[in-house]
Amino acid sequence: MSALATPTRSRRTPSRADAAVFKAELALFRREPGSLFWIMVFPTGLFVVLGTIPVFREVGEAIPGMRLIDVYVPIAILTSLLMASVQAMPPVITGYREQGILRRMSTTPVRPATVLGAQMALHGIAALVSAALTITVGALAFDVPLPKQGFGYVLALALSVCAALSLGALLSALSRTSKAANAVGAVAFFPMMFSAGLWMPVQTMPDMLGRIMEVLPFGAASQALSAAGAGDWPSLAHLGALALWTVLLTGAAARWFRWE
Length: 260
Fold this sequence. Notes:
The protein is mostly helical. It has one domain (12-256). The chain is built from ten helices and no strands. Helix 7 crosses helix 9. The chain is elongated and about 60 Å long.
């Protein structure tokens, strides 16, 4: 009887340990007001500031039939994703590595990969909450229509989250210290935001530049979310680009990630 009971305990221990790690990481995450602000409040705040500019609420010639404030909904969502995956998550994981926490975890029932999974889940959830907040504020304050292609929008958003978190995992793998993670994140942030259309929506870019941006993960995400928001099914090229980037970035992160 005892011989049968032992394997059962060994199977249950990791799941209990994983749950304990997630609970602990959640408690620590909630105690980081800076990260919560930049992920969940800043993108919507920026969106509201842009919405107070009269030209953003007028239908212009650059994007026929649409206002700039309508176009900036997915851009605000992608800003939150970038804040979570590039600015917030890598310094935490590299800090754990730098302090030897991951190495010590390897001697316990907790798998070090559990920490990475918990961090990705928490930052992904925070970004999704920010996305819901942006969509709600846009609808209530600026009469931005809700996404007309609901399933396509959810699919595009899910792939965008996966691609963003995969990029964050890669930066975590390449950075050896928290300072390095902050520096690499800052370097990656601005090109990614440009490709998402923060300074110039992808729809208004010159043809060649726009096609280049659509190949990049956040450019493809911006176009896929915009299309679904307008009621069209996202282009398979954009969805495929997001899926491909997720696979490539995840594979690179797994290849170069070190636990100590």
